[in-house]
Fold this protein.
Amino acid sequence: MARTWEAKKFNRYYAELLCQGPFAIHVGGGSKDYHSRYRLRYETLIRRFCCLAPASPVNVLDVGGGQLALLCKHLWDDRAALADINIDGPLFDFLRSHGVQTVQWDLCKAEQPFTEQFDFIFFSEVIEHLPLPGHVVLERLRRALKPGGILICSTPNLYRLRNVVYLALGVRIFDYFRMPEGTGLSHVIEYSRDHLQWQFERAGFKDCRIELCQLHHSSTNLVFRIMLWIGHPLLLVPRFRASLLAIAHAP
């Protein structure tokens, strides 16, 4: 039996857990409205998970962030864990106090702390920060999944309208391509749908489906808000949409 989506319950936990407290302070560069602006992304990922997961609790890993693991823990009492390059500080203390396991995992290194342990892995807005071929990282995550486990991944679309404008204006899109030194990097690479599909297949996943989505958020930059409003009709063309959403199954 599939899970039931309860919008009121999601809204309550989203407001209580993410829009106030440590997540409101320590995520988004100190912008307290970060989670209000990016709410659609989290709701989309959690709703997709709800459609895929069985009714009984499952083992869930959230790579980076921890918001999705925390929501799964409160919404359905899933056995939730977070993996990040650094797990020190009040944000991670907050997650642990809510029953979310935290594990340090630098995906740029060959270490493999988990093997066939999770039913689901969230990999949201992370792969674009990693200066390695995507399939190397995805293969490490595949090994952490149980047979038949599912990876839910979101990442910016290389051909999104914002990048087209940046290229036209000569504005730098990516961070310098280098290995992280104890802290994360900004975007060092972004993928097209075909490129990401190839990475998943090379990593050994099967039944990988990648959608081009427009997960709207309100930019803090007035110029970008105006540009998005002007260019909105172009979003009817899937190629220009902002996000890639991948659902991939471990064999």
The chain has a mean pLDDT of 91.
